[in-house]
Amino acid sequence: MLKINNLHVKLEEEDKRILKGVDLEVPAGSVHAIMGPNGSGKSTLSYVLSGRDGYEVTEGGATLDGEDLLDMDPEERAAAGLFLAFQYPVEIPGVGNMTFLRTAVNAQRKARGEEEMSAADFLKFIRAKAKELKIDADMLKRPVNVGFSGGEKKRNEILQMAMLEPKMCILDETDSGLDVDAMKLVSEGVNALRNAGRSFLVITHYQRLLDHIKPDVVHIMADGRIVKSGGPELALEVENNGYADILAEMEVEA
Amino acid sequence: MNTAPKKAPALISADARPVSGAWAAEARADAAARLADMGLPTRRDEYWKWTRPDSLISATPDMAEVFDYEGESLVFHAIDRLKIVFVDGVFDADASDELDGEGLEIERLASAAGKDIHWAKDLYGVLETKGQTPVVRPLAAHNTAMATDGVVIRVTGKVSRPVSLIYQHKDANSDAILHNVVRLEEGAKLTLLENGAAAARLSKVTEVDIGPGAEFHHVRAQGRDHDRQAVTHMFTRVDTGAVFKSFTMTVNGKLTRNECIIDIVGDDAIAHVAGAALGDGAAGDFHHDDTVFVTHDAVSCESRQVFKKVLKNGAKGVFQGKILVKPGAQKTDGYQKSQSLLLDDDAQFLAKPELEIYADDVACSHGSTSGAIDEEALFYLRSRGVPTHIATDLLVLAFLADAIEEIEDEAVAAEIIDRLDAWLARRRG
Ligand SMILES: Nc1ncnc2c1ncn2[C@@H]1O[C@H](COP(=O)(O)OP(=O)(O)OP(=O)(O)O)[C@@H](O)[C@H]1O
Ligand SMILES: [Mg+2]
Predict the structure, then answer these.
(1) What is the mean pLDDT of residues B26-49?
(2) Is the C-alpha dihedral spanning B145, B150, B156, B158 positive or negative?
């Protein structure tokens, strides 16, 4: 599904290298997790994959189902099935959440040559999904993320994911800011979407999320590289011992 | 361009003024004297430093090609309303509805002015005169002296449907001078719609007297003709517990100067004035000026100014807004917001917000900003699959939202949003 090959990225504006050769492959139907110290480049990786401005790829590349991701506009990547749940969801005053979602759903359908969803069907669809995530009608009417609590913003990201039905979902610290019950809800939301054709890349600092969303593979990212990969037990090891041992073992400067 | 001045500051002679009955002849003579006194605006006037008055006071207007709407139905067409049509400033009886309605007395200015006595005497040129201090507005006095037509409306109750003034522009060289007078008696309510360019050059004055507890709603769409020029003045007196709400949409237009002079004279009154102006210099010159003066002369009143401009390709926006709180106007809540969204580096926005406060227990604020599209928001939308142009339009409409919110009637607001959306779609890229 997602293949990242020796990806090197620096900031466009300054001479700062952030990703220094990321290799990663997420097959269809699997869940991979990325953990790693603050500032190691996890969010940068997710932004570069989704096409945010400000970064320059100096080497390597990334493909989604064999298609060159880095060549596409952000909206084309979305239409191709890529979705990023933001670590910091953006507030958009003046744009209603519902309008936003309907525009997004229909834009993607149009890009894929499908028919737009009728207003009535859309309403039914979003109500059902919102209910599963315990998002009340009021939140749908309000401007996108404006005045939402941290946890509400994260649930809103998952609502968008559920509505857009992407095939490659990247979740950047979706668990941070969630209370215990919300974390369960969000995890159930994610698990409900798991299927053979859909993959997840879950960025997190905490093992707890991975109790709910069981990953197939856990990667450790440090200083712009994947330095270690393993099974779910790797997350436990991080939870118990931190990164020092792993980094020492890999001879990477912490 | 013709820059020869009109016949002022010398007194406009009685012969030059439209033939009128006794009361109107007197009002026009007074206005001509006022104008002779103050003189026409010049580029050196502080109040005109950002908008050149030259083409507004030249003897003949610059030619303005008539906009081809290509059969598109005009704004407000789907709204049930009482239609009154002027073509290049001349009343069109065939295209207009019967001039009457429940709770409404309505008459053409040309007819009212021809009579020897008329209730409009108490308002015509009266609110304009009051609005000449502390800042002179010579073009409004000129209008009072010279206006050929318009409507005078007296509202005595709740009117079932809006009165809609449709100003068509069909002659590329027309020069229209229109003057409307509206009086809302105690507890009355009226929605006034206006649309169209009216002429190659339009001078329009509207005087609105809002009685105790009455409500006046005004929504205006200025015509899309690129070369048209307009100077408009709205003078309003807002009495106890009354409501004044005015919203103007302007897209295109070589030169527009909209002045709104609000005088709040009764306690617990509310006055809101808002505007959304969109200009793209690539389609033709665009210069839009909102000049507002709100005077609080009563207790516990609320005023709002919400002006938004979306500018690109050399389009220019001007805002001059003032709130004056007179001594004793305690518990005044005055707020002024003037913002522009510059879609490229070429566009220009000039703003002069002013507060002058002589009471101590008031809450007044103003904010004037000028910025670009929020890149973070744009990326967020695009990452959800929304193409750049649609995402940009969504953000522009979001920027305009709090001005549009000043429109009370949902159907009218929806109509305005549709038109703004369509303009954005046409002017993409
Ligand atoms: N636009 C930018 N300007 C300057 N520095 C940047 C920018 N984007 C990223 N960086 C830097 O790149 C490094 C990687 O940041 P990134 O946000 O990818 O880390 P992260 O692994 O997601 O961290 P966290 O766990 O705290 O979310 C950090 O040192 C960060 O300060
Ligand atoms: Mg991060």
Answers:
(1) 95
(2) negative
Tens of pLDDT along A50-63? 999 999 999 999 99
Q: Any idea which residue has 């104008």 for tokens? A: B35
pLDDT tens digits along B40-51: 999 899 999 999
pLDDT of residue A251: 65
Mark yes or no for CB contact B387/A52 under 8 Å: no
d(CA B375, nearest CA chain A) in Å = 9
Determine contact, residues A51/A73, Cβ cutoff 8 Å: yes
Structure tokens at B213: 């507890």
Q: Cβ–Cβ contacts within 10 Å for residue B130, how many?
A: 15
Atom of ligand 1 nearest to the CA of A173: 27
Q: Could you tell me if the CB of A81 is within 6 A of ligand 1?
A: no
d(CA A164, CA A79): 9
Asked if residue B68 belongs to a domain, the reply is: yes
The rounded Å distance from CA A224 to ligand 1 centre is 10
**Partner-chain residue, chosen from B375, B388, B401, that has the shortest CB–CB distance to A94:** B401
Interface confidence (ipTM) of the complex: 0.95
Candidate from A9, A13, A16 with most ligand 1 atoms within 8 A of CB, to mutate: A16
Ligand 2 is an ion; its neighbours by CB within 5 Å are A 42-43, 87
**CATH number for the domain harbouring residue A133:** 3.40.50.300
Average pLDDT over residues B386-402: 95
Asked if residue B298 is part of any domain, the answer here is yes
What residue type is assigned to position B93 of the chain? A
Whether the per-residue pLDDT at B94 is higher than 50: the answer is yes
Report the gap between the CA of B381 and the closest CA in chain A (Å): 8
| Count of domains forming chain B | 1
Provide the residue range defining the domain that includes A89. 2-250
- Please tell me which of the candidates A50, A93, A144 has its beta carbon nearest to residue B383: A50
Structure tokens that stand for B168 in this block: 């068509």
Is position B421 within any domain?
A: no
Find the distance separating the first CA and the last CA of chain A, reported in whole Å: 31
pLDDT in tens, A105-153: 999 999 989 999 999 999 999 999 898 888 888 889 999 999 998 888 9
Write the pLDDT tens digit of every residue in B78-93: 999 999 999 999 999 9
Containing structural domain, residue B143? 22-372
Strand ranges, E, within B358-405: 363-371
Peptide bond into B134 cis (omega under 30): yes
Q: Which residues of A touch B397 (CB under 8 A)?
A: 94-95
* Chain A CB contacts of B381 below 8 Å: 92, 100, 103-104
Asked if residue B412 is part of any domain, the answer here is no
